[in-house]
Amino acid sequence: MQEQLTFVATCMFGLERFVGEEIDALGYERISTIDGRVTFRGDMSAIARCNMWLRCAERLYISMGTFPAFTFTELFDGVKKLPWERWIGPDDAFPVKGHSIKSQLFSIPDCQSIVKKAIVERLSAEYGISWFKEDCVKYQIDFFILENEATLMIDTSGTPLHKRGYRPAAGAAPLRETLAAAMVKVARPREDVLLWDPFCGSGTIPLEAALLMTNTAPGMNRSFAAEEFFDIPAEVWTKAREEAHDLQKLDTRFEAFASDIDRDMVRMAQDNVVRAGMQKYVKTFQHDALNIRADGRRGTIVCNPPYGERLMTPEEVAVLYRKMGKHFASLAPWQVYIISSDENFEEHYGRRADKVRKLYNGMIRCGYYQYFKNDTRRQSEDHRSHSDSFRKDDNFHKYKKDFQNQRPGHFRKPEDKPDRKD
Q1: Cα 287 to the center of its chain, rounded Å
Q2: Smallest Cα–Cα separation from 177: which of 212, 142, 213?
Q3: Is residue 284 helix, strand or coil?
């Protein structure tokens, strides 16, 4: 039986379920889930396969161990007991960084110093040396202290996983690729349904949709820190890349449109499409989002319009949302999925969402507003009476209050289901 390792996949808040499902699909065993982190077990091949296939994760770590750490002494002793020599050689580099949340040990520089000193003492005893050159392979050490429990990890990804390699540059308000992938998954793209992002920017949403529908591993064409690790055989990476190539489905009829009113953004999106090798599936062109037409096709809109944070003023955004609501209603029965940080989005848009999922775009708390029920009469009524009914709707005010008070929580079991308005 192959050696079983413990891994931690980190992600943006709100994407834990997607990461867990991706880990399940790869055949690995989930252990626990907390905000921004999924812990699981797997063999050595998981290092290559998860780095290559996880669409919604930010990094993949090898977990070295977890222990209580209320004092610096406990932190030092716990770190020193871990088998660092299993990975780190006498000439390798092992810089330390980390985080501490709701814990007695809150000074990050002090914790870094203690962790480094403990690893040095462990390796000094193992290799019989007192000075380390640290000029060979880099093993980035990460500590995470949550409620006085420390987890020590080694980063296997290096460059964050959201950097697929197809987007060297981005627009003024870029959407992270991992978040775009989750948005696309919620929208359930299909071969016979056009997916259109009319605010495409650098083209991230249509590109992630094309990668998903062609079953292209998002990390297939990039490198990872762990490819340099001495104890990981080269054949692990070779097999993972061969698997990724074999599982591509390039004969799909899926089509996505990436349009934007800004000609420079369209050019940038087209360059990214070519770099990703997805030009067969993603069409880019300049177009006003408020003039798009169905032309008899079935379609789904997935978009990230301006929030009023970095592009446009809040007043300009409110006007844009009202126009979007009116025009997108004319495309019925198209489904519409919109991410926005505007807490009054539904009021401006003129229609209550069928479902809202709380997500984070970087550090910006957002709602992912989903319109998928094809009830044209309801849409018309919503547009006529929405302003008055919204002010009277207790459920809306309760939702708004809950949304404003939402903060990253504590431990959550893998099998826990999100609430109705997830």
Answers
A1: 28
A2: 212
A3: strand
Rounded distance between C-alpha atoms, residue 397 and residue 236, angstroms: 53
Q: Where in the chain is the domain with CATH 3.30.2130.30?
A: 5-155
First-to-last alpha carbon distance for the chain, in angstroms, is 40
Question: Rounded CA gap, 198 and 187, in Å?
Answer: 15
Which run of H or of E encompasses 357? strand 355-361
- For 177-221+245-405, which CATH superfamily applies? Vaccinia Virus protein VP39 (3.40.50.150)
For tokens 């953004």, what's the residue? Answer: 265
Closest by alpha carbon to 98, among 124, 86, 116, 78?
116
Domain with CATH 3.40.50.150 in the chain: 177-221+245-405
Distance of alpha carbon 100 from alpha carbon 147, whole angstroms = 8
User: Is the distance from CB of 96 to CB of 166 less than 8 angstroms?
Assistant: no
Alpha carbons 303 and 321: distance in angstroms, whole number: 12
* Cα gap 361→363, rounded to integer Å: 6
Please choose, from the candidates 224, 226, 223, the residue with its C-alpha nearest in 3D space to the C-alpha of residue 87.
226
Tell me if residue 227 falls in helix, strand or coil: helix
Phi, psi of 77 (to 5 degrees): -65, -40
Pair 346, 369: CB distance under 8 Å: yes
pLDDT tens profile 110-142: 999 999 999 999 999 999 999 999 999 999 999
CA dihedral 387, 388, 390, 391 (to 10 degrees): 120
CATH architecture assignment, domain 5-155? 2-Layer Sandwich (3.30)
Tell whether omega for the bond before 174 is within 30 degrees of 0, i.e. cis. Answer: no
**Closest listed residue to residue 275, CA positions, set 362, 182, 170:** 170
Distance from C-alpha of 214 to C-alpha of 172, rounded to nearest angstrom: 29
Give the Cα separation of 157 and 237 in Å (integer).
13
Give dist(CA 415, CA 392) in Å, integer. Answer: 36
How far apart, in Å, are the Cα atoms of 30 and each of 17, 36, 335? 11, 14, 33
Place 366 in a pLDDT band, splitting at 50, 70 and 90: very high
Give the other-Cβ count within 10 Å of 349's Cβ. Answer: 28
Q: How far is CA 392 from CA 28, 190, 239, 399, in A?
A: 48, 38, 59, 13
Q: How would residue 194 be classed by pLDDT, with cut points 50, 70 and 90?
A: very high
- DSSP conformation letters of 177-224: HHHHHHHHHHH---TTSEEEETT-TTTHHHHHHHHHHTT--TTTTS--
Token couple for 271 = 């360059």
Q: Assess contact for 269 and 275: CB atoms under 8 A.
A: no
